[in-house]
Amino acid sequence: MRTTVRALLIATFSLTVLIATSPAIGDTVFDYKTAKVDSNDLSFYQPSITAEPYPLTSDMRVRNVIFCIGDGMGINQVALAGATVAGPGGKLHLERLPVSGLVRTWSANSRVTDSAAAGTALACGVKTNNGMIGMTPDEKAYCSILEAAQAKGMATGLVVTCTMSHATPASFGSHVKSRKLEPAISEQLIDNRINVLFGGGRKYFLPQSDPNSGRKDDLDLLAKARDAGYTCIHTPGQFRNVEGSHVLGLFQFDALTTGAPEPSLAMMTRKAIRLLRRANLDSTDGRYGFFLMVEGSQIDWECHANRVNGSIRQTLLFDQAVEAAVDFALKDGHTLVIVTADHETGGMTLNGGGNEDKGDAELAVKWSTKGHTGAPVGIWALGPGATRFAGVQDNTEIPKKIAQLLGIRPFPRPAK
């Protein structure tokens, strides 16, 4: 019965959505290579059977942090995805986190941030100019919360659906003047000895002699990673069976397709949690925990293209990863889960099609831009210390609060 009702909801929504796709004057045109999958097929997603909030964990010590970032995921993107699969009264898993608030996202040189400046704020706790990674506008590098956790003895990981060297993961594991320097970012990710790296972008790890390379030098980063102790994988079978304290999983030359046979974002999240727990137990008897950043990278790309169904699909894929994080956190009791976005993309609005007075208004989705907006984004939290993330806050406050909960001082701080 649930399956039939859900199918009817999805079918009804597909028939009633109205889309406005004309870009506003002056909008930047983006040409991301988005997933070539059926964005109308949402059968992979199982909505929660309840809209009740997850329990508010008692105030205990934070041992692990799972930081989930939906790139370009505004509040309306969340609302739209939830209404599509669960009806107007349903909730996504991320909406069931017991603590919520709002986040302001402006950058050092613009009221409308890009992913590099926003990622730097979320990772390092400092404002920077659009396009810059892990450093302030005067090019002074700042330690990310991942690097600070690593210095404390925690295992660390990055899980994304974009290239491993894209703006958000780069902000947590590198420091460069421009987000376009993906070959250099890839080198720094390996040099920083991050335990688990799952995503796309294998081309930036291959020497220029390889026809699939995106580098302009002869550096073979995969060989360098193996020499540094990484297990390098790129197939579903290798993913299923992989073990080790340092794992580099690059499942496409460019961004992931977010379709089979690749591991899904939720699968990569579960695997990363297991590997990080094991790496931590092997090295420290579990005393120091782990820090994991998970990004739903392609919500942003679908919204740049003003594709409603693609936005819904990518948001649901991200929500599955949040569910995986929450499942672990509820069992563990010492894990803080934070869910937010770096910015909103597309200026998505949810209107009633002009028939609100008749009481049967259809949901109409419209866009105001093909770029980013300056709208605040949501934040949701669960686990020990979650209440600190309630209310309205700047994006730079989030890693500062994480640092306080982990006993990391000082933070922010310059990188070594």
* Radius of gyration (Å): 20 Å
What is the number of beta strands?
15
Named CATH topology? Alkaline Phosphatase, subunit A
CATH superfamily: Alkaline Phosphatase, subunit A
Major pleated sheet: 10 strands, mixed
Termini Cα gap: 58 Å
Q: Walk across the major sheet and give the strand order.
A: 6-7-5-4-8-2-9-14-3-15
The fraction of residues in strands falls at 15-25%
The best one-word shape is globular
Q: Structural class of the helix and strand makeup? A: alpha/beta
Q: Structurally, how many domains make up the residues?
A: 1
Mean pLDDT, as a whole number?
90
Number of helices: 12
Percent range of helical residues: 25-40%
Low-confidence stretches: 1-31
Architecture, CATH level 2?
3-Layer(aba) Sandwich
**CATH class descriptor name:** Alpha Beta
What string, H for helix and E for strand, traces the elements in order? Answer: HEEHEHHEHHEHEHEHEHHEEEEEEEH
Detailed description of the structure:
There is one protein chain. The protein is 32% helix and 17% strand. The strands form three sheets. It has a ten-stranded mixed sheet, sandwiched between helices. A three-stranded mixed sheet has the order 1-12-11, with no helix packed on it. The protein has twelve helices and 15 strands. It is globular. Strand 6 (231-233), helix 8 and strand 7 (247-250) form a beta-alpha-beta unit. With 416 residues, it is α/β, with parallel strands linked by helices. It has helices at 2-16, 75-86, 115-124, 145-151, 167-173, 182-191, 221-227, 236-241, 265-284, 299-304, 308-332, 397-406, and strands at 19-20, 64-70, 99-104, 155-163, 196-200, 231-233, 247-250, 290-296, 335-340, 344-345, 349-351, 364-366, 372-373, 377-382, 391-394. The chain has a single domain (2-45, 52-358, 365-406), classed as Alkaline Phosphatase, subunit A.
